[in-house]
Amino acid sequence: MPAGATFSFWRQVGNPNFGRGYVLGREIREGCVVPTVAGGLCQLSNALYDAALRAGFTIVERHRHTQVIKGSLAEQDRDATVKWNYLDLRFRAPVAFRLEVELTADQLLVRFRGENPALAAPPLPTEAARPASALHDCYACGNVGCFQHPGEVPLRPATTRATFLLDESWPEFAQYVRATAGPADVVVVPQPLGRPRRAGGLAALPLAVALHSAAWRRQLGQRLATKLSRNVFAQSLRGDARVAAAAARHLRPDSTHLVVAQSLLPFLWRAGVLGGRTFDVLLTRLPAALLHARLDAAHARHPSSLTLRDFRAPAAFVAAESRALTQARRLLTPHHELANLFNNKAILLEWARPEVSPGVVPGTRILFPASALARKGAYEMRQLAQELRLPLVVAGRATEGAGFWQAVATTPAGPEALASIGLVVYPAYVEHQPRLLLRALAAGIPVVATAACGLGPQAGLTLVPVGDYPALRRAVQQALAGRPAAEVRGMITG
Length: 494
Description:
alpha/beta, Rossmann fold, 3 domains, seven-stranded parallel sheet, six-stranded parallel sheet, 13 helices, 29% helix
C-alpha cells in the first residue's frame, strides 16, 4: 500500500460467494451465530484491525460485532465486523507498507512491513470489556429459543476427515494409504478407476475419486512433447498443475489433514488450499532446488550434454515447493537419500519386495539399467566400459546423441533385462524408483550404484558417492576381482 492510500477490506477480498470457492462458516446475525457462506471472515478483519491499531494507522471505517464471542478480540473491543458490501474495514498509514497474511495449520498471521515502522500507536482502550455470552451455534448449541433453531435435531459428534491427494503409483505409498485411510477419508487418484494397476491398487478404497480428464490430458501432453522433441519436463509441470487443480476441487471443508503427492505440492501450496490444514508429503524426488544444483554439477562435468539443461523448474515453483516442504508435518518416502535430507521429520518406508521372474538366471554380462542419459550416469558408464573394456547390456532406448556408444560394445536388453546378468552398475545422478535394482538384489545379482538410487545398505549392494568416478571404478574392479577368472573373461573383452 502506498503512503496515504486507504486500505479497504472488500476492495481486496471481493464478493465472497460460493462460486469463488467460499464454503459454510459461522456468522453472527442478529446476535446469533449461524452457518453462512464465507462466515468467519471477520477473524481476518479482526486481526487486521488489531494490527492496524498496534501499528498506529488511522482507522477510517470500523464496525463492532453485535455479539461478543468468548475468546475473540471483541472481548477487548478490538474487533471489526465486515459484511459485503456495506460494512467495510478501512485504514491508512502515512508511510508505504506491505500487508502479508498467512494461514498455517493452527494460526492466522498478519504482518505489516514498512521502511518506517516507528509510528505513534494510540493507547489501547481502557474501558471494561463487554461481557461475553455463551456460544450459540446452530450446529450443536442445544438452544431452542433462538429464531434460527431448526427443531429437534440429534446431536452428532464433530468429525473430521483426511484426504489423500495421490499421483505416481508407488506400491510403498499404496500400502501406506491402505494401512492409514479410514472409512470416512477420501482418496484422490489421477487415473481411471477401471485400471487398478495404474491407480496403484487404491481404487478399492472407500470414497476413491479418479481424475479422468486431467490425467489423460497430462499424458497426452507428455506424449506430444516427446514426439515433437519439446521440453518434456516443462510439459509435465503443466500437466501436474492441471491434475493439482482438479484434485483441489475434491477437497471438502472438513478435510483437516491432507496427504499430498510431491508432484502436486507446489501447485496446491500456491492455490492456498494447504492453509488451515496439517499435511504430510509423499516424497518421490529431490526438491527442485537440490535437483537443479545436482544437475548443474553434472553439467559442469559434462558440458557437451544436451539433456542436463532440460530439468529446470520456474523460480516460483522452486519457492513454493521449498516453503511447503518446510511447513509439512511429516515427509514419507522409501528413498533413503531423500529421508536423510529431512531426517528431522522424515518417515522411512520400506521398499516393496519385488517378485523375481523365472526368466532371471544370473550370468556373466554387465547391465547398465537405464537409458544413455547424462542424469543416469551414462558418461561415467561409457568411460568405465572403455577403460576396463567392458561390453554392456543397456536397458533403455533413449540416448544423449547418435553414436554415443560408438567406442563401446553394447547390446540392448531383452524382455527380461536381468537374464544372464552377473553385475549391475548404475552411476546415476538422479533416480527416483530403483525397481530394476531391487529386482536384481532379490535375484542375488550384485549391484554397484550411487546413493542417488535411494537404496540403503544391504547384502549384494555397493554404494558410491554421486559423481565420484574413481570410487565407481574401484567398486567395479573389486566386484570383478571377487569372481572366478572364467567369469571375468566373459565380462571383459580381450
